[in-house]
């Protein structure tokens, strides 16, 4: 690809995109876009072209033509708040260019509040860390093989590192600034196998989506003191041992689509309100008892588990909550996402349910991600629950009498 082919305008024209990305068009329309607070969409190919031009070290208006002055683009990117970068799989057009593998630099974006990146190679993205002071919401999907690639790309340069502000234990070769403004992180649909120590760099995270990865164990989440909503659905979790020591303040937990048979690790999550355990391997109703005493739990989903084939299983699940049965709702059926998620989507259209008060705030309703439909407990179900409780109490009394007679 020659220099002439690397100009942003030429590449935009080749792709058939709107010429708004040319310097002059940005100068004309940029103020309107910034004022409206719209998400600006761009491809890796265009970012690669701009990166190449800037690396040449020439004046931004080397041609002398104001209409091709890259300064217009730099002024625009310095003020942009909402960015979406989407690559494409396979070769670009009829060429042999693999767009998703192109390197590009995001350091020209100085004021980002939200960014979504998809179908790129996280290892080839430079400059994202320049947004640490301002970035509140980040989504990187179909792009990463580890959390480190996204959160601390410079880690490969150092033997030992610690986050800024941490008490140093032993020798370190680097102190790395944290993502001090980041409160929502979506790393779903990647090839991440572990929750590594890079989470130490996101201490203010409240919403974390790691769904559709290959995570085996819940490690390092104890460093995230502000975490309240977690989506670990469709991973490879088989144990919840000690989870209460890592998710002490959690309110919404999506564990659908894992390999769980035992729920004993959930019994001390006293702040938990929403819990999705659909599509696991839970067989015994006794397992539900470990969550039946959770004081704040209001919504629980156990669809597509072996125990869900038990006759009247929903009523029997509610019975595990004792006096709180009337306060708990249980998932009744899977619905398409469009029916099961009444809230608006993530700002970038990534398919997540959110409660948002504007572009600058994000609250994923992670429980709705599986499209579960929750029914309020009916009077008939409550009556049945009371009968089941009475039967259980009678069994307990009979057992006590039997034991006392033996003595």
UniProtKB/TrEMBL annotation:
Keywords: Leucine-rich repeat, Repeat. It comes from the Eukaryota. Gene3D superfamilies: Ribonuclease Inhibitor. GO terms for cellular component: cytoplasm. This is Nischarin. The lineage of its organism: Eukaryota, Metazoa, Chordata, Craniata, Vertebrata.
């Amino acid at each position: 690809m020659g220099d002439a082919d690397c100009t942003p305008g030429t590449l935009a024209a080749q792709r058939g995109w709107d010429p708004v990305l040319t310097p002059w068009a940005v100068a004309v329309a940029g103020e309107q876009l910034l004022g409206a607070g719209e998400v600006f969409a761009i491809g890796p190919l265009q970012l690669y072209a701009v990166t190449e031009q800037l690396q040449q070290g020439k004046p931004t208006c080397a041609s002398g033509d104001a209409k091709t002055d890259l300064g217009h683009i730099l002024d625009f990117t310095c003020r942009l708040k909402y960015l979406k970068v989407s690559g494409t799989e396979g070769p670009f057009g009829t060429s042999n260019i693999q767009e998703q593998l192109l390197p590009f630099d995001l350091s020209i974006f100085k004021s980002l509040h939200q960014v979504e990146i998809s179908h790129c190679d996280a290892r080839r993205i430079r400059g994202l860390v320049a947004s640490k002071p301002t970035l509140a919401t980040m989504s990187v999907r179909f792009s990463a093989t580890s959390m480190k690639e996204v959160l601390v790309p410079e880690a490969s340069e150092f033997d030992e590192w610690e986050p800024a502000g941490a008490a140093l234990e032993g020798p370190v070769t680097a102190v790395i600034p944290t993502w001090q403004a980041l409160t929502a992180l979506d790393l779903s649909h990647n090839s991440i196998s572990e929750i590594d120590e890079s989470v130490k760099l996101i201490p203010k995270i409240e919403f974390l989506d790691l769904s559709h990865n290959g995570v085996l164990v819940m490690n390092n989440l104890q460093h995230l003191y502000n975490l309240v909503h977690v989506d670990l659905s469709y991973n490879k979790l088989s144990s919840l041992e000690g989870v209460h020591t890592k998710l002490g303040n959690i309110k919404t937990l999506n564990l659908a689509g894992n390999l769980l048979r035992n729920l004993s690790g959930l019994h001390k999550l006293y702040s938990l309100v929403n819990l999705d355990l659909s599509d696991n391997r839970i067989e015994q109703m006794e397992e539900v008892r470990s969550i039946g005493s959770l004081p704040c739990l209001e919504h629980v989903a156990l669809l597509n588990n072996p125990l869900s084939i038990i006759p009247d299983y929903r009523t029997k699940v509610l019975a595990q909550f004792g006096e709180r049965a009337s306060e708990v709702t249980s998932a009744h059926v899977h619905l398409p996402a469009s029916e099961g998620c009444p809230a608006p989507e993530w700002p970038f259209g990534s398919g997540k349910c959110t409660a948002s008060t504007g572009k600058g705030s994000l609250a994923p309703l992670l429980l709705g991600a599986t499209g579960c439909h929750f029914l309020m407990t009916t009077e008939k179900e409550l009556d049945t629950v009371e009968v089941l409780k009475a039967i259980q109490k009678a069994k307990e009394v009979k057992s006590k009498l039997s034991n006392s007679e033996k003595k």
